[in-house]
Structures are given as structure tokens and as C-alpha cells.
Specification:
This protein is an alpha+beta fold. The chain has two domains: about 80 residues, Glutaredoxin, CATH 3.40.30.10; about 100 residues, Up-down Bundle (Glutathione S-transferase Yfyf (Class Pi), Chain A, domain 2). Helices cover about 55% and strands about 10% of the residues. It is built from nine helices and four strands. The mean pLDDT is about 95. Bound molecules: glutathione.
């Protein structure tokens, strides 16, 4: 059976959503937030971060986007991603990489500002720059969503749920919802999705 190491309100949200939408059972392991992780967890997550996925064969992987893409690939019947070779596949890969390499790190810079400068007095500036970067990146996604219901292809994919997760973390949520109306339109629909609404009861993302 799969094992997912996760925590409420974390990047485990998208991976848990993938499991629920695929109807695939998994062992849910809640990892408490601590600066002194145990050695066993560090062995599978060297940066002491969640989510972490252990596959049924015992192989372990970190990185939320990679976990989502692996689950989509292993459970094609759930249509969590366009299949390899499908026209929307390139868009799917592009936006999953964009979200995990541009948006997610900007979120981390805001919430873990102390890690991004050796100067204690720099935290406010790091946070301000993180918000500016989030706005710049969400503006890119917002533009692409103009006239589109979904981020890629013609149906909901795990990329939309990944976007919902990141958008929920915007530190100025009310302003962001106004500023990025296309992202908000997509996210508003997803907040009512029965599986995601239920998952949010434990994650409290919105
Ligand atoms: N690049 C990683 C980032 C994961 C990450 O930063 N997870 C956060 C929760 S959302 C975490 O575990 N933070 C604890 C820490 O960094 O100490 C991914 O996409 O999975």
C-alpha cells in the first residue's frame, strides 16, 4: 500500500486529493512540525519537509509536484493529467514545473523568511519581495486562464488542484482574489468540489 507523510495545511493537500480522486487507498502518516526531526524521517526527507510518498514497492519520493505527477501516471483512469502524447501534456508539464519552481518557493520565502537572509533585520524585506514575486507569478497564470475553464486541456486535472493549494497560501488572500479574477474563478469552483471541500475540513486551506 502507498504511504503518504503529510500534515494539515501543507503541500500534502494536493497529493491527498490525488489519492481521493483516484479512489486509491493509502496509509496517512501525520508528521508533526518540528525543528528536531527524527532520524527515520530525515532518511526519507532530507530537508525535513512534507509531503513524502512511499510507493507500494518501498521506493520513496519527495517533491509535491513529482508526487502528483507520479500518481497521475500510475492511475490514468482518474484522468488527473493529460496522457503522455496528448496535446495538453506539454502544457501540463509546463505548469506543474512553473508552479513548483516559481510559485511554491515564493510561498516558502514568505513563511520561512528567516531562512533567506543571514541578517535578522531583513525578514520584512524578504516577505515583501516574496509577495511581489507571488503577484508576478499569479499574474502569468491569470493571463493564461483568460477564457479557459481549466489550466490545461478540457477537464480538471491535478494541476488545477495544485494551483488552488498555492493560491490558498497567498498571504494577502482577499487582495489576491480581487487581483487575479481568472485564478479566483477556477479556485471558487474547486472549493465547492465535494472531494476537495471534504479534504479542506482537515487542511483548512480556505
Ligand atoms: N519542494 C517541496 C517543498 C515542500 C515544503 O516546503 N513543505 C513544507 C510544508 S508545505 C514543509 O514541510 N516545511 C517544513 C520545513 O521546511 O521545515 C515540495 O514541493 O514538496
Amino acid at each position: 500500500m502507498y504511504k503518504l507523510y503529510t500534515r494539515p495545511g501543507s503541500g500534502g493537500f494536493a497529493a491527498e486529493a490525488a489519492f481521493l480522486l483516484a479512489g486509491e487507498p493509502f496509509e496517512h502518516i501525520d508528521v508533526a512540525k518540528t525543528d528536531k526531526p527524527d532520524a527515520a524521517f530525515l532518511a526519507i526527507s532530507p530537508l525535513n519537509q512534507v509531503p513524502v510518498l512511499t510507493l507500494p514497492d518501498g521506493h520513496t519520493m519527495t517533491e509535491s509536484a513529482a508526487i502528483c505527477m507520479a500518481l497521475a501516471e500510475r492511475h490514468p483512469e482518474a484522468a488527473l493529467a493529460p496522457q503522455a502524447g496528448a496535446p495538453a501534456r506539454a502544457d501540463f508539464l509546463r505548469w506543474m514545473a512553473f508552479m513548483s519552481s516559481a510559485l511554491y518557493p515564493a510561498v516558502l520565502r514568505f513563511y520561512y523568511a528567516h531562512r533567506y537572509s543571514a541578517d535578522d533585520g531583513a525578514k520584512a524585506g524578504v516577505r515583501k519581495a516574496a509577495i511581489a514575486e507571488l503577484d508576478r507569478d499569479f499574474a502569468v497564470v491569470d493571463k493564461v486562464l483568460a477564457g479557459r475553464q481549466w489550466l490545461v486541456g478540457e477537464g480538471m486535472t491535478i494541476a488545477d488542484i495544485y494551483l488552488l493549494m498555492l493560491f490558498s497560501w497567498h498571504p494577502e488572500a482577499d487582495r489576491a482574489r480581487q487581483a487575479f479574477a481568472n485564478v479566483e474563478r477556477l479556485c471558487a469552483g474547486l472549493r465547492d468540489h465535494p472531494v476537495l471541500a471534504k479534504l479542506n475540513a482537515s487542511h483548512e486551506m480556505w
